[in-house]
Specification:
It is built from ten helices and no strands. It is mostly helical.
Length: 269
């Protein structure tokens, strides 16, 4: 088959792969939250047992513990088949599962179309999926998982090595680490809890991913999101806002916009 005939199949495949990755990462996010940070972690006192449960325990309803039928685990369609309820206890399954699956199912083919290569599109999709874990743990427990942040660094580092904009990315990652590290240190010294320690490496990973100066737009958007959350949703200037989650949402919004801006020639790398 000629390359032109193969192309539509590549996008269909990218969409399917994106849906699978979306399903995998959202499930991982809720499982990390459940096994490591919820009350259920007491059933797994040792960290080793939590990791084992995270990886090997088959999918189950987090309300009643009933195993989930394989049919319902099919990305996107499983949500419809199950009628968004646990077959055992009837607990409603959050539409966030569906949104998370659809987002990556659209993102990967989009990155492939507007971007430059399969490896680049795939790495950016993995980075986006990994952020699901940051968003879920930060909104539920005000915690950013360090192991998850290490994966974010890994994908951003490979991207820095193989994609364009290596210098801009290194300046972005290094600069963010220094500035956020200093901010964290000052906030500790002055006793004002502006940010958690987990925000520092997460921000540096995002800085490395976008590079300088694109990262500035993303951080301003994340800060605005955080302030909006405190003032409007929580109703107080002093209400704690999960900055990591805000940064996660800003990044998920910025990734497709950045790739289209590069494609259109508005951004250099
Ligand atoms: Zn159930």
């Amino acid at each position: 088959m000629s390359e032109e005939l193969l192309l539509p199949f590549a996008y269909v495949f990218a969409g399917l792969l994106g849906a699978i990755l979306g399903s995998f990462y959202y499930a991982t996010a809720t499982r990390v939250s459940y096994f490591f940070y919820s009350a259920a972690r007491k059933s797994y006192p040792r960290k080793r047992d939590r990791f084992r449960a995270l990886i090997f325990k088959p999918s189950f309803c987090m309300e009643c513990g009933a195993p989930i039928s394989r049919v319902y685990l099919i990305p996107v369609f499983g949500y419809a088949f199950s009628r968004a309820r646990c077959a055992e206890c009837g607990t409603r399954i959050s539409p966030k599962h569906l949104v998370a699956e659809i987002y990556l199912a659209i993102l990967l083919p989009t990155l492939l179309y507007f971007g430059r290569s399969w490896p680049e599109a795939l790495l950016m999709t993995l980075f986006a999926g990994q952020l699901y874990v940051s968003i879920v743990t930060d909104t539920r427990h005000m915690i950013l998982d360090h192991e998850n942040t290490a994966f974010l660094f890994l994908w951003a580092a490979i991207l820095t090595a193989i994609a364009d904009g290596t210098t801009a990315r290194l300046i972005g990652g290094g600069g963010t680490l220094v500035i956020f590290g200093a901010l964290y240190w000052i906030s500790r010294l002055t006793g004002r809890t502006m940010m958690g320690f987990g925000d520092v490496p997460l921000s540096a990973a995002v800085g490395l991913f976008f590079g300088f100066p694109t990262l500035l737009i993303v951080f301003v958007a994340a800060a605005c999101g955080s302030i909006f959350y405190s003032l409007v949703i929580q109703g107080s200037r002093n209400a704690p806002a999960p900055f990591g989650a805000s940064l996660g949402f800003a990044t998920l919004t910025a990734i497709p916009l950045q790739i289209v801006a590069q494609w259109a020639g508005f951004l250099q790398f």
